[in-house]
Amino acid sequence: MSRRKIIFGAVVLVLVTFLATSAGFLYLMNAWSSDVVSTLRVLRALHVVQSRYVEDVPVDTLIAGSIKGMVNSLNDPHSVYMDPKMFKEFMIETEGSFGGVGIVIGTKDKQLTVVAPIEGTPGEQAGIKSGDQIIKIDGQETKDLALDEAVNKIRGPEGSKVVLTIKRAQEVKDYTLTRSNIQIKTVAGKLLDDNIGYIRISMFNENTGNDFVRKLQELEKQGMKALVLDLRDNPGGLLDESVKVAGQLVPKGPVVSVVTRDGRRETHSSSLDQPKYPVAVLVNGGSASASEIVAGAIQDTEVGTLIGTKTYGKGSVQTVIRLDEGSAIKLTIAKYLTPKDRAINGVGIEPNIKVELPETKDKDTQLEKALEVLKSKL
């Protein structure tokens, strides 16, 4: 052990021992500022629990619990404490693959809710939809379950099973899903009739921006004259990747502005000289976060038409702050604004043309409308 760690440990021991006496604690309560007093209260609680609880509890467990409680007290479903296991899974997911059933979840109206199923995964294949409420996981009620705990319960080894009890409207149904290794290919596309390109982005991970550029170039070589960008059930992801995508479609100027609590503003911009072709964007209630950045920029700059239903309404920005080698906090640090300074958090974005998708899904009325709009501009 280094000399620095020994000295630090000795100082903490003296401080905690001093605080353990009521005289020492009251002295500091009267002498120090409220912020310091609050910090010392936590230290005293740690000492009391560790020294007097009926069973021995590791300090790491107590510290992790206090951090988790601190973050949960924010009442922000997008701010979470990630223990080493959860942090590792988070990093794998943003890099492009993870183990689970392939649904992105969030909290809406204080209820665990499916933001979007990921294409080609067990969740999507079982028929789970955006907006479904998850009321139980393996029989355990979710109403008092933190978002990170729910994620950990749904994920697991490939081949294992999890039972999700889903409420949709007034219907409650159990879905037994077999977990698989979710490989996320976020960009897919093809050329449709009348030289109209179609590109689907399922979410925004580290590869999305570059993959989108490659797919655009491929379709342009085939003679693309207009583009349908499908962002339905896209739960979002990395802000920088959404800016890369928007930068291929919207003209030179702001794409999104990130505003912190002290009013500082950071604007991410496009450098595109001018739009190349008409664009129609498909959105729905599962279009969230980074996908709303792209949709909002296209709508505000009027380079494209949004078609479908209102988006999810996640207009906040999170950053991941490491606490040590294994754990981290994902913390909401800012809100974002569209190019016209619209704040969409909790509100969502209304499409230019509202089109509902039939429950039977025997035909894609939203895509049909997008093609109709684009053909009229060719």
Topology (SSEs and partners):
Elements (H helix, E strand, L loop, with lengths): L2 H18 L1 H10 L2 H19 L6 H14 L7 E3 L1 H12 L1 E4 L2 E6 L2 E7 L4 H4 L7 E5 L2 E2 L5 H8 L6 E8 L2 E8 L1 E4 L3 E5 L4 E6 L6 H14 L4 E5 L8 H8 L6 E8 L4 E6 L8 E5 L6 H11 L3 E5 L7 E7 L5 E10 L15 E2 L10 H11 L3
Parallel strand pairs: 11-12, 12-15, 15-16, 16-19
Antiparallel strand pairs: 1-18, 2-9, 3-4, 5-6, 5-7, 7-8, 10-11, 13-14, 13-18, 17-18
Helix pairs in contact: 1-3, 8-9, 9-10
The proportion of residues in beta strands is 25-35%
Rounded to the nearest angstrom, the distance between the terminal CA atoms is: 72 Å
Shape: globular
Major sheet: 6 strands, mixed
* CATH superfamily descriptor of the largest domain: 2-enoyl-CoA Hydratase, Chain A, domain 1
How many strand segments?
A: 19
The strand order across the widest sheet is 10-11-12-15-16-19
The CATH class of the largest domain, by name, is Alpha Beta
Helical percent range? Answer: 25-40%
From the alpha carbons, calculate the radius of gyration and give it in angstroms. 24 Å
- Unreliable stretches, pLDDT < 50, 5 or more residues? 1-22
Q: Could you say which structural class the secondary elements and strand pairing correspond to?
A: alpha+beta
If helices are DSSP runs of H or I spanning 4 or more residues, what is the number of helices? 11
CATH topology of the largest domain: 2-enoyl-CoA Hydratase, Chain A, domain 1
